[in-house]
Description:
The structure is a homodimer.
Chain A lengths: L5 H14 L7 H8 L3 H18 L2 E6 L5 E6 L3 H15 L5 E2 L3 E2 L2 H4 L2 H15 L6 E5 L4 H11 L3 E4 L10 E7 L6 E7 L8 E9 L3 H12 L3 E11 L11 E10 L4 E6 L5
Parallel strand pairs in A: 5-6, 5-9, 9-10, 10-11
Antiparallel strand pairs in A: 1-2, 3-4, 7-8, 11-12
Helix pairs in contact in A: 1-3, 2-3, 6-7
Amino acid sequence: MDKFHRNERIAVLLKTLCDSPGETFTLGNLADIFGAAKSSVCEDLDVVQNLLSKFEIGYVESISGSLGGVRFIPGYSKNKIKDMLDSVCQELSNTQRILPGGYLYMLDIIYNPKRVSDIGSIFAGCFFKKEIDCVITVETKGIPLAFATAKHLNVPLAIARHNSEATDGPSVNINYLSGSAKKIQTMVLSKRVLKRNSRLLFIDDFMKGGGTAKGIIELAKEFDCEVSGIGVLVETCKPQKKLVNDYVSLVTLNISNEEEEMITVEPSEVWM
Amino acid sequence: MDKFHRNERIAVLLKTLCDSPGETFTLGNLADIFGAAKSSVCEDLDVVQNLLSKFEIGYVESISGSLGGVRFIPGYSKNKIKDMLDSVCQELSNTQRILPGGYLYMLDIIYNPKRVSDIGSIFAGCFFKKEIDCVITVETKGIPLAFATAKHLNVPLAIARHNSEATDGPSVNINYLSGSAKKIQTMVLSKRVLKRNSRLLFIDDFMKGGGTAKGIIELAKEFDCEVSGIGVLVETCKPQKKLVNDYVSLVTLNISNEEEEMITVEPSEVWM
Lengths: 272, 272
Protein backbone atom coordinates (compact mmCIF):
# COMPACT_ATOMS: atom_id res chain seq x y z
CA MET A 1 0.00 0.00 0.00
CA ASP A 2 1.23 3.47 -0.87
CA LYS A 3 1.83 5.98 1.89
CA PHE A 4 0.31 9.38 1.35
CA HIS A 5 1.33 12.79 2.62
CA ARG A 6 -1.29 14.87 4.32
CA ASN A 7 -1.57 17.17 1.25
CA GLU A 8 -2.21 14.19 -0.93
CA ARG A 9 -4.66 12.55 1.45
CA ILE A 10 -6.87 15.62 1.54
CA ALA A 11 -6.85 15.96 -2.24
CA VAL A 12 -7.71 12.31 -2.81
CA LEU A 13 -10.29 12.37 -0.02
CA LEU A 14 -12.12 15.31 -1.58
CA LYS A 15 -12.12 13.67 -5.00
CA THR A 16 -13.08 10.22 -3.69
CA LEU A 17 -16.02 11.49 -1.65
CA CYS A 18 -17.31 13.82 -4.39
CA ASP A 19 -16.98 11.12 -7.05
CA SER A 20 -19.12 8.70 -5.01
CA PRO A 21 -21.94 10.75 -3.51
CA GLY A 22 -24.02 8.94 -0.94
CA GLU A 23 -21.52 6.11 -0.59
CA THR A 24 -20.51 5.45 3.00
CA PHE A 25 -16.80 5.10 3.74
CA THR A 26 -15.84 3.90 7.20
CA LEU A 27 -12.93 5.59 8.92
CA GLY A 28 -11.26 2.18 8.81
CA ASN A 29 -11.65 2.04 5.00
CA LEU A 30 -10.16 5.48 4.58
CA ALA A 31 -7.35 4.85 7.05
CA ASP A 32 -6.48 1.71 5.06
CA ILE A 33 -6.57 3.49 1.70
CA PHE A 34 -4.17 6.13 2.95
CA GLY A 35 -2.08 4.08 5.33
CA ALA A 36 -2.83 6.67 8.01
CA ALA A 37 -4.26 6.69 11.53
CA LYS A 38 -8.01 7.19 11.93
CA SER A 39 -7.36 10.35 13.91
CA SER A 40 -5.42 11.82 10.98
CA VAL A 41 -8.24 10.94 8.60
CA CYS A 42 -10.66 12.75 10.94
CA GLU A 43 -8.55 15.90 10.77
CA ASP A 44 -8.40 15.58 6.99
CA LEU A 45 -12.18 15.27 6.86
CA ASP A 46 -12.50 18.59 8.71
CA VAL A 47 -10.47 20.27 5.99
CA VAL A 48 -12.62 18.66 3.29
CA GLN A 49 -15.81 19.72 5.08
CA ASN A 50 -14.51 23.27 5.23
CA LEU A 51 -13.69 23.29 1.52
CA LEU A 52 -17.10 21.94 0.55
CA SER A 53 -18.77 24.67 2.52
CA LYS A 54 -16.48 27.35 1.02
CA PHE A 55 -17.54 26.20 -2.46
CA GLU A 56 -21.16 25.59 -1.39
CA ILE A 57 -21.40 22.27 -3.23
CA GLY A 58 -22.53 19.91 -0.46
CA TYR A 59 -21.29 18.48 2.82
CA VAL A 60 -19.83 15.46 4.54
CA GLU A 61 -22.32 13.60 6.73
CA SER A 62 -21.14 11.45 9.62
CA ILE A 63 -23.06 8.28 10.31
CA SER A 64 -22.52 6.94 13.81
CA GLY A 65 -22.79 3.34 15.01
CA SER A 66 -21.04 0.15 14.04
CA LEU A 67 -22.00 0.56 10.37
CA GLY A 68 -21.00 4.19 10.59
CA GLY A 69 -18.68 6.28 8.51
CA VAL A 70 -18.81 9.36 6.36
CA ARG A 71 -20.42 10.14 3.05
CA PHE A 72 -20.71 13.10 0.74
CA ILE A 73 -24.16 14.59 0.34
CA PRO A 74 -24.45 16.69 -2.82
CA GLY A 75 -26.31 19.97 -2.61
CA TYR A 76 -25.54 23.41 -3.92
CA SER A 77 -26.49 26.37 -1.73
CA LYS A 78 -29.64 28.25 -2.72
CA ASN A 79 -27.52 31.23 -3.79
CA LYS A 80 -25.35 29.13 -6.01
CA ILE A 81 -28.42 27.49 -7.56
CA LYS A 82 -29.99 30.90 -8.14
CA ASP A 83 -26.84 32.07 -9.97
CA MET A 84 -26.78 28.94 -12.12
CA LEU A 85 -30.46 29.25 -13.00
CA ASP A 86 -30.09 32.95 -13.82
CA SER A 87 -27.42 32.06 -16.30
CA VAL A 88 -29.59 29.30 -17.85
CA CYS A 89 -32.50 31.74 -18.10
CA GLN A 90 -30.35 34.35 -19.77
CA GLU A 91 -29.22 31.84 -22.39
CA LEU A 92 -32.76 30.58 -22.98
CA SER A 93 -34.36 34.04 -23.22
CA ASN A 94 -33.60 34.49 -26.86
CA THR A 95 -36.42 34.83 -29.36
CA GLN A 96 -34.30 32.96 -31.94
CA ARG A 97 -34.99 29.85 -29.88
CA ILE A 98 -38.77 29.89 -30.34
CA LEU A 99 -40.01 26.99 -32.47
CA PRO A 100 -43.49 26.41 -33.93
CA GLY A 101 -45.94 25.03 -31.34
CA GLY A 102 -44.61 26.95 -28.35
CA TYR A 103 -41.43 24.89 -28.07
CA LEU A 104 -37.96 26.19 -27.43
CA TYR A 105 -34.72 25.09 -29.04
CA MET A 106 -32.48 24.03 -26.18
CA LEU A 107 -30.39 21.11 -27.44
CA ASP A 108 -27.22 23.21 -27.03
CA ILE A 109 -27.94 23.41 -23.30
CA ILE A 110 -29.33 19.95 -22.54
CA TYR A 111 -26.50 18.25 -24.47
CA ASN A 112 -23.72 20.36 -22.91
CA PRO A 113 -21.93 18.09 -20.43
CA LYS A 114 -20.85 20.81 -17.99
CA ARG A 115 -24.25 22.47 -17.84
CA VAL A 116 -26.00 19.13 -17.61
CA SER A 117 -23.71 17.95 -14.85
CA ASP A 118 -24.44 21.11 -12.83
CA ILE A 119 -28.18 20.68 -13.34
CA GLY A 120 -27.94 17.01 -12.36
CA SER A 121 -26.22 18.10 -9.19
CA ILE A 122 -29.06 20.51 -8.38
CA PHE A 123 -31.60 17.70 -8.83
CA ALA A 124 -29.49 15.34 -6.74
CA GLY A 125 -29.46 17.89 -3.93
CA CYS A 126 -33.26 18.35 -4.15
CA PHE A 127 -34.05 14.64 -4.02
CA PHE A 128 -31.21 13.13 -2.03
CA LYS A 129 -33.29 12.76 1.13
CA LYS A 130 -35.96 10.78 -0.73
CA GLU A 131 -33.65 7.75 -0.80
CA ILE A 132 -34.03 7.23 -4.53
CA ASP A 133 -33.15 3.76 -5.88
CA CYS A 134 -33.23 4.59 -9.57
CA VAL A 135 -33.58 7.61 -11.87
CA ILE A 136 -36.01 7.09 -14.74
CA THR A 137 -36.63 9.06 -17.94
CA VAL A 138 -38.22 8.58 -21.35
CA GLU A 139 -36.09 8.75 -24.47
CA THR A 140 -34.49 10.97 -25.76
CA LYS A 141 -33.81 14.54 -24.78
CA GLY A 142 -33.98 14.04 -21.01
CA ILE A 143 -31.40 11.24 -21.00
CA PRO A 144 -28.25 13.31 -20.40
CA LEU A 145 -29.96 15.18 -17.52
CA ALA A 146 -31.29 11.94 -16.03
CA PHE A 147 -27.89 10.31 -16.38
CA ALA A 148 -26.11 13.22 -14.69
CA THR A 149 -28.65 13.16 -11.85
CA ALA A 150 -28.21 9.40 -11.45
CA LYS A 151 -24.46 9.91 -11.34
CA HIS A 152 -24.74 12.51 -8.57
CA LEU A 153 -27.14 10.26 -6.64
CA ASN A 154 -24.95 7.22 -7.36
CA VAL A 155 -27.91 5.08 -8.48
CA PRO A 156 -28.71 3.35 -11.79
CA LEU A 157 -30.63 4.86 -14.66
CA ALA A 158 -33.71 3.43 -16.40
CA ILE A 159 -34.80 4.63 -19.84
CA ALA A 160 -38.33 4.00 -21.06
CA ARG A 161 -38.58 3.84 -24.85
CA HIS A 162 -41.30 4.36 -27.41
CA ASN A 163 -40.76 0.97 -29.07
CA SER A 164 -39.41 -2.26 -27.72
CA GLU A 165 -36.02 -3.46 -28.95
CA ALA A 166 -34.35 -6.82 -29.38
CA THR A 167 -31.81 -5.83 -26.71
CA ASP A 168 -34.40 -5.20 -23.99
CA GLY A 169 -35.44 -8.78 -23.39
CA PRO A 170 -39.03 -9.16 -22.17
CA SER A 171 -40.61 -5.75 -21.56
CA VAL A 172 -43.76 -4.05 -20.27
CA ASN A 173 -45.79 -1.62 -22.40
CA ILE A 174 -48.22 1.03 -21.29
CA ASN A 175 -50.21 3.59 -23.21
CA TYR A 176 -50.52 7.15 -21.99
CA LEU A 177 -52.06 10.39 -23.11
CA SER A 178 -49.65 13.23 -23.75
CA GLY A 179 -50.86 16.16 -21.66
CA SER A 180 -50.64 18.85 -24.30
CA ALA A 181 -51.33 17.15 -27.61
CA LYS A 182 -53.87 14.61 -26.25
CA LYS A 183 -52.21 11.97 -28.37
CA ILE A 184 -52.03 8.34 -27.27
CA GLN A 185 -48.42 7.24 -26.93
CA THR A 186 -46.65 4.07 -25.87
CA MET A 187 -43.92 3.62 -23.30
CA VAL A 188 -41.89 0.42 -23.02
CA LEU A 189 -39.50 -0.66 -20.30
CA SER A 190 -37.42 -3.82 -20.09
CA LYS A 191 -38.64 -6.06 -17.29
CA ARG A 192 -35.14 -6.59 -15.97
CA VAL A 193 -34.43 -2.92 -15.40
CA LEU A 194 -36.39 -2.23 -12.20
CA LYS A 195 -36.46 -4.15 -8.94
CA ARG A 196 -39.83 -4.32 -7.18
CA ASN A 197 -40.53 -1.68 -4.53
CA SER A 198 -37.93 0.71 -5.91
CA ARG A 199 -38.25 4.41 -5.25
CA LEU A 200 -37.96 6.21 -8.59
CA LEU A 201 -37.03 9.75 -9.53
CA PHE A 202 -38.40 10.88 -12.89
CA ILE A 203 -36.19 13.47 -14.62
CA ASP A 204 -37.02 15.24 -17.88
CA ASP A 205 -35.99 18.33 -19.79
CA PHE A 206 -39.43 19.81 -20.39
CA MET A 207 -42.94 19.67 -18.92
CA LYS A 208 -45.93 21.16 -20.68
CA GLY A 209 -49.08 19.27 -19.66
CA GLY A 210 -47.41 16.65 -17.45
CA GLY A 211 -48.68 13.70 -19.51
CA THR A 212 -45.29 12.01 -19.68
CA ALA A 213 -44.83 12.29 -15.91
CA LYS A 214 -48.28 10.76 -15.40
CA GLY A 215 -47.35 7.98 -17.84
CA ILE A 216 -44.22 7.22 -15.81
CA ILE A 217 -46.32 6.95 -12.64
CA GLU A 218 -48.54 4.39 -14.40
CA LEU A 219 -45.52 2.52 -15.73
CA ALA A 220 -43.96 2.42 -12.24
CA LYS A 221 -47.13 0.76 -10.88
CA GLU A 222 -46.70 -2.08 -13.37
CA PHE A 223 -43.32 -2.76 -11.77
CA ASP A 224 -44.64 -2.37 -8.19
CA CYS A 225 -42.49 0.72 -7.88
CA GLU A 226 -43.22 4.21 -6.66
CA VAL A 227 -42.34 7.58 -8.20
CA SER A 228 -40.92 9.44 -5.20
CA GLY A 229 -39.88 12.56 -7.07
CA ILE A 230 -40.27 14.40 -10.36
CA GLY A 231 -37.78 16.98 -11.60
CA VAL A 232 -37.86 18.93 -14.86
CA LEU A 233 -35.51 21.58 -16.17
CA VAL A 234 -38.16 23.72 -17.88
CA GLU A 235 -41.89 23.93 -17.25
CA THR A 236 -44.25 26.02 -19.31
CA CYS A 237 -46.54 28.61 -17.73
CA LYS A 238 -49.51 27.22 -19.61
CA PRO A 239 -51.36 25.08 -18.95
CA GLN A 240 -50.97 26.16 -15.34
CA LYS A 241 -52.68 22.99 -14.11
CA LYS A 242 -50.50 19.98 -14.90
CA LEU A 243 -51.56 16.32 -14.81
CA VAL A 244 -49.23 15.77 -11.82
CA ASN A 245 -49.09 17.87 -8.67
CA ASP A 246 -45.87 17.20 -6.94
CA TYR A 247 -42.86 18.14 -9.03
CA VAL A 248 -39.82 20.41 -8.98
CA SER A 249 -39.07 22.59 -11.97
CA LEU A 250 -35.95 24.70 -12.25
CA VAL A 251 -37.09 27.39 -14.67
CA THR A 252 -40.46 28.50 -16.03
CA LEU A 253 -41.04 29.45 -19.65
CA ASN A 254 -43.66 31.86 -20.86
CA ILE A 255 -44.11 32.35 -24.58
CA SER A 256 -46.86 34.91 -24.33
CA ASN A 257 -47.34 35.61 -27.99
CA GLU A 258 -45.84 33.24 -30.47
CA GLU A 259 -46.34 35.54 -33.45
CA GLU A 260 -44.76 38.54 -31.76
CA GLU A 261 -42.18 36.29 -30.20
CA MET A 262 -42.49 37.49 -26.63
CA ILE A 263 -40.63 35.16 -24.35
CA THR A 264 -39.66 35.16 -20.69
CA VAL A 265 -37.71 32.47 -18.88
CA GLU A 266 -37.32 32.81 -15.13
CA PRO A 267 -36.19 30.62 -12.25
CA SER A 268 -39.28 28.79 -10.98
CA GLU A 269 -41.00 30.27 -7.93
CA VAL A 270 -39.42 27.91 -5.39
CA TRP A 271 -35.98 29.34 -6.19
CA MET A 272 -36.90 33.02 -5.91
CA MET B 1 -11.11 36.48 -2.51
CA ASP B 2 -10.60 33.65 -0.04
CA LYS B 3 -7.12 32.64 0.98
CA PHE B 4 -6.36 28.95 0.78
CA HIS B 5 -3.93 26.83 2.73
CA ARG B 6 -1.58 24.63 0.76
CA ASN B 7 -3.58 21.51 1.72
CA GLU B 8 -6.70 23.10 0.40
CA ARG B 9 -5.10 24.42 -2.76
CA ILE B 10 -3.88 20.98 -3.79
CA ALA B 11 -7.28 19.40 -3.14
CA VAL B 12 -9.15 22.04 -5.13
CA LEU B 13 -6.54 22.00 -7.88
CA LEU B 14 -6.89 18.24 -8.35
CA LYS B 15 -10.68 18.48 -8.45
CA THR B 16 -10.73 21.55 -10.70
CA LEU B 17 -8.38 20.08 -13.28
CA CYS B 18 -10.04 16.65 -13.31
CA ASP B 19 -13.52 18.19 -13.57
CA SER B 20 -12.51 20.18 -16.68
CA PRO B 21 -10.36 17.89 -18.80
CA GLY B 22 -8.64 19.59 -21.70
CA GLU B 23 -9.36 23.08 -20.38
CA THR B 24 -6.28 25.25 -20.14
CA PHE B 25 -5.72 27.17 -16.92
CA THR B 26 -2.95 29.75 -16.90
CA LEU B 27 -0.74 29.95 -13.84
CA GLY B 28 -2.11 33.47 -13.45
CA ASN B 29 -5.69 32.12 -13.35
CA LEU B 30 -4.80 29.57 -10.73
CA ALA B 31 -2.74 32.02 -8.66
CA ASP B 32 -5.76 34.36 -8.66
CA ILE B 33 -8.22 31.62 -7.68
CA PHE B 34 -6.09 30.65 -4.71
CA GLY B 35 -4.64 34.01 -3.78
CA ALA B 36 -1.19 32.43 -3.96
CA ALA B 37 2.09 33.09 -5.75
CA LYS B 38 2.63 31.42 -9.12
CA SER B 39 5.65 29.61 -7.71
CA SER B 40 3.47 28.06 -5.01
CA VAL B 41 0.94 26.96 -7.61
CA CYS B 42 3.77 25.30 -9.55
CA GLU B 43 4.77 23.32 -6.50
CA ASP B 44 1.14 22.34 -5.96
CA LEU B 45 0.93 21.16 -9.56
CA ASP B 46 3.86 18.82 -8.97
CA VAL B 47 1.96 17.18 -6.13
CA VAL B 48 -1.15 16.85 -8.33
CA GLN B 49 0.93 15.37 -11.17
CA ASN B 50 2.37 12.84 -8.78
CA LEU B 51 -1.08 11.86 -7.49
CA LEU B 52 -2.47 11.43 -10.99
CA SER B 53 0.36 9.11 -11.88
CA LYS B 54 -0.05 7.15 -8.64
CA PHE B 55 -3.69 6.54 -9.53
CA GLU B 56 -2.94 6.09 -13.26
CA ILE B 57 -5.85 8.24 -14.38
CA GLY B 58 -4.14 10.81 -16.61
CA TYR B 59 -1.63 13.62 -16.38
CA VAL B 60 -1.15 17.37 -16.30
CA GLU B 61 0.20 18.81 -19.52
CA SER B 62 2.09 22.11 -19.57
CA ILE B 63 1.57 24.38 -22.53
CA SER B 64 4.31 26.95 -22.94
CA GLY B 65 4.11 30.37 -24.57
CA SER B 66 1.99 33.43 -23.95
CA LEU B 67 -1.25 31.45 -24.21
CA GLY B 68 0.27 28.74 -22.06
CA GLY B 69 -0.86 27.10 -18.90
CA VAL B 70 -1.73 23.65 -17.68
CA ARG B 71 -4.51 21.23 -18.48
CA PHE B 72 -5.57 17.78 -17.41
CA ILE B 73 -5.36 15.07 -20.06
CA PRO B 74 -7.51 12.08 -19.17
CA GLY B 75 -6.10 8.63 -19.80
CA TYR B 76 -6.05 5.49 -17.74
CA SER B 77 -2.93 3.35 -17.89
CA LYS B 78 -3.13 0.21 -20.04
CA ASN B 79 -3.04 -1.94 -16.89
CA LYS B 80 -5.90 -0.08 -15.32
CA ILE B 81 -7.92 -0.36 -18.53
CA LYS B 82 -7.19 -4.07 -18.72
CA ASP B 83 -8.48 -4.52 -15.15
CA MET B 84 -11.64 -2.56 -15.89
CA LEU B 85 -12.31 -4.50 -19.10
CA ASP B 86 -11.71 -7.82 -17.37
CA SER B 87 -14.37 -6.91 -14.86
CA VAL B 88 -16.81 -5.87 -17.62
CA CYS B 89 -16.12 -9.14 -19.45
CA GLN B 90 -16.72 -11.16 -16.33
CA GLU B 91 -20.08 -9.49 -15.80
CA LEU B 92 -21.08 -9.91 -19.44
CA SER B 93 -20.02 -13.57 -19.70
CA ASN B 94 -23.25 -14.93 -18.36
CA THR B 95 -25.45 -17.13 -20.50
CA GLN B 96 -28.52 -15.61 -18.83
CA ARG B 97 -27.76 -12.48 -20.82
CA ILE B 98 -28.16 -14.07 -24.26
CA LEU B 99 -31.20 -12.75 -26.13
CA PRO B 100 -32.76 -14.04 -29.37
CA GLY B 101 -30.87 -12.87 -32.49
CA GLY B 102 -27.39 -13.00 -30.98
CA TYR B 103 -27.90 -9.95 -28.77
CA LEU B 104 -26.81 -9.56 -25.19
CA TYR B 105 -28.73 -7.96 -22.33
CA MET B 106 -26.46 -5.24 -20.99
CA LEU B 107 -28.71 -2.38 -19.89
CA ASP B 108 -27.57 -2.89 -16.29
CA ILE B 109 -24.02 -2.06 -17.38
CA ILE B 110 -24.60 0.68 -19.96
CA TYR B 111 -27.03 2.52 -17.66
CA ASN B 112 -24.82 2.27 -14.57
CA PRO B 113 -23.35 5.75 -14.01
CA LYS B 114 -20.07 4.63 -12.40
CA ARG B 115 -19.32 1.99 -15.00
CA VAL B 116 -20.34 4.31 -17.82
CA SER B 117 -18.22 7.12 -16.47
CA ASP B 118 -15.17 4.84 -16.32
CA ILE B 119 -15.78 3.64 -19.87
CA GLY B 120 -16.23 7.24 -21.05
CA SER B 121 -12.90 8.02 -19.49
CA ILE B 122 -11.25 5.17 -21.41
CA PHE B 123 -12.68 6.49 -24.69
CA ALA B 124 -11.63 10.04 -23.81
CA GLY B 125 -8.07 8.81 -23.27
CA CYS B 126 -8.10 6.93 -26.62
CA PHE B 127 -9.34 9.89 -28.64
CA PHE B 128 -8.05 12.95 -26.79
CA LYS B 129 -5.25 13.59 -29.27
CA LYS B 130 -7.70 13.66 -32.18
CA GLU B 131 -8.90 17.10 -31.07
CA ILE B 132 -12.54 16.12 -31.11
CA ASP B 133 -15.09 18.97 -31.31
CA CYS B 134 -18.21 16.96 -30.61
CA VAL B 135 -19.24 13.43 -29.59
CA ILE B 136 -22.08 11.99 -31.64
CA THR B 137 -24.32 8.96 -31.10
CA VAL B 138 -27.66 7.61 -32.29
CA GLU B 139 -30.51 7.21 -29.83
CA THR B 140 -30.87 5.43 -27.43
CA LYS B 141 -28.67 2.94 -25.67
CA GLY B 142 -25.35 4.58 -26.51
CA ILE B 143 -26.37 7.97 -25.10
CA PRO B 144 -25.05 7.55 -21.55
CA LEU B 145 -21.69 6.29 -22.87
CA ALA B 146 -21.50 9.10 -25.42
CA PHE B 147 -22.44 11.67 -22.77
CA ALA B 148 -19.81 10.38 -20.34
CA THR B 149 -17.18 10.47 -23.10
CA ALA B 150 -18.19 14.02 -24.03
CA LYS B 151 -17.90 15.01 -20.38
CA HIS B 152 -14.38 13.60 -20.12
CA LEU B 153 -13.41 15.33 -23.38
CA ASN B 154 -15.20 18.51 -22.31
CA VAL B 155 -17.03 18.88 -25.63
CA PRO B 156 -20.74 18.94 -26.53
CA LEU B 157 -22.85 15.92 -27.42
CA ALA B 158 -24.98 15.44 -30.54
CA ILE B 159 -27.72 12.82 -30.68
CA ALA B 160 -29.09 11.64 -34.01
CA ARG B 161 -32.67 10.38 -33.78
CA HIS B 162 -34.84 8.04 -35.78
CA ASN B 163 -37.64 10.59 -36.23
CA SER B 164 -37.59 14.37 -36.27
CA GLU B 165 -39.18 16.22 -33.35
CA ALA B 166 -40.83 19.61 -32.90
CA THR B 167 -38.00 20.61 -30.56
CA ASP B 168 -35.22 20.03 -33.13
CA GLY B 169 -35.99 22.94 -35.42
CA PRO B 170 -34.97 22.35 -39.05
CA SER B 171 -33.15 19.04 -39.42
CA VAL B 172 -31.31 16.86 -41.93
CA ASN B 173 -32.39 13.27 -42.70
CA ILE B 174 -30.36 10.47 -44.19
CA ASN B 175 -31.20 6.85 -44.90
CA TYR B 176 -28.77 4.10 -44.12
CA LEU B 177 -28.61 0.36 -44.30
CA SER B 178 -28.15 -1.42 -41.00
CA GLY B 179 -25.14 -3.70 -41.41
CA SER B 180 -26.58 -6.84 -39.88
CA ALA B 181 -30.30 -6.78 -40.67
CA LYS B 182 -29.95 -5.06 -44.08
CA LYS B 183 -32.91 -2.89 -43.18
CA ILE B 184 -33.23 0.70 -44.42
CA GLN B 185 -33.34 3.10 -41.48
CA THR B 186 -33.50 6.85 -41.07
CA MET B 187 -31.29 9.13 -39.04
CA VAL B 188 -32.22 12.74 -38.27
CA LEU B 189 -30.10 15.49 -36.81
CA SER B 190 -31.07 19.05 -35.99
CA LYS B 191 -29.29 21.51 -38.27
CA ARG B 192 -28.28 23.71 -35.37
CA VAL B 193 -26.37 20.98 -33.52
CA LEU B 194 -23.16 20.77 -35.56
CA LYS B 195 -20.84 23.51 -36.71
CA ARG B 196 -19.24 23.03 -40.13
CA ASN B 197 -15.82 21.40 -40.22
CA SER B 198 -16.23 19.83 -36.80
CA ARG B 199 -14.24 16.74 -35.92
CA LEU B 200 -16.67 14.15 -34.59
CA LEU B 201 -16.25 11.11 -32.37
CA PHE B 202 -18.95 8.47 -32.81
CA ILE B 203 -19.61 6.46 -29.64
CA ASP B 204 -21.99 3.52 -29.36
CA ASP B 205 -22.63 0.57 -27.08
CA PHE B 206 -22.63 -2.19 -29.69
CA MET B 207 -21.29 -2.87 -33.19
CA LYS B 208 -22.39 -5.85 -35.22
CA GLY B 209 -22.13 -5.04 -38.92
CA GLY B 210 -21.05 -1.41 -38.58
CA GLY B 211 -24.05 -0.03 -40.50
CA THR B 212 -24.83 2.63 -37.90
CA ALA B 213 -21.23 3.85 -37.89
CA LYS B 214 -21.31 4.06 -41.68
CA GLY B 215 -24.60 5.97 -41.44
CA ILE B 216 -23.00 8.48 -39.09
CA ILE B 217 -20.15 9.02 -41.54
CA GLU B 218 -22.73 9.80 -44.25
CA LEU B 219 -24.65 12.09 -41.92
CA ALA B 220 -21.45 13.94 -40.99
CA LYS B 221 -20.80 14.67 -44.66
CA GLU B 222 -24.15 16.43 -44.92
CA PHE B 223 -22.93 18.81 -42.22
CA ASP B 224 -19.46 19.21 -43.81
CA CYS B 225 -18.05 17.45 -40.78
CA GLU B 226 -15.63 14.59 -40.42
CA VAL B 227 -15.80 11.48 -38.24
CA SER B 228 -12.33 11.43 -36.66
CA GLY B 229 -12.92 8.49 -34.38
CA ILE B 230 -15.31 5.61 -33.66
CA GLY B 231 -15.51 3.88 -30.30
CA VAL B 232 -17.81 1.04 -29.27
CA LEU B 233 -18.07 -0.81 -26.00
CA VAL B 234 -18.86 -4.24 -27.50
CA GLU B 235 -18.20 -5.56 -30.97
CA THR B 236 -19.33 -8.95 -32.17
CA CYS B 237 -16.89 -11.50 -33.61
CA LYS B 238 -19.16 -12.05 -36.61
CA PRO B 239 -19.32 -10.64 -39.15
CA GLN B 240 -15.58 -10.20 -38.91
CA LYS B 241 -15.60 -7.67 -41.74
CA LYS B 242 -17.45 -4.52 -40.65
CA LEU B 243 -18.70 -1.73 -42.89
CA VAL B 244 -16.13 0.63 -41.33
CA ASN B 245 -12.43 -0.06 -40.91
CA ASP B 246 -11.07 2.32 -38.37
CA TYR B 247 -12.69 1.89 -34.96
CA VAL B 248 -11.80 1.07 -31.37
CA SER B 249 -13.78 -1.57 -29.53
CA LEU B 250 -13.27 -2.33 -25.86
CA VAL B 251 -14.54 -5.90 -25.68
CA THR B 252 -15.38 -8.57 -28.24
CA LEU B 253 -18.39 -10.84 -27.97
CA ASN B 254 -18.61 -14.31 -29.41
CA ILE B 255 -21.90 -16.18 -29.14
CA SER B 256 -20.71 -19.34 -30.86
CA ASN B 257 -23.85 -21.37 -30.59
CA GLU B 258 -27.07 -19.62 -29.66
CA GLU B 259 -28.96 -22.82 -28.95
CA GLU B 260 -26.30 -24.23 -26.67
CA GLU B 261 -25.69 -20.82 -25.25
CA MET B 262 -21.95 -20.74 -25.60
CA ILE B 263 -20.65 -17.24 -24.99
CA THR B 264 -17.25 -15.63 -24.59
CA VAL B 265 -16.57 -11.97 -23.94
CA GLU B 266 -12.95 -10.83 -23.94
CA PRO B 267 -11.09 -7.54 -24.05
CA SER B 268 -10.57 -6.66 -27.71
CA GLU B 269 -7.19 -7.51 -29.21
CA VAL B 270 -5.70 -4.04 -28.89
CA TRP B 271 -5.93 -4.26 -25.08
CA MET B 272 -4.32 -7.68 -24.72
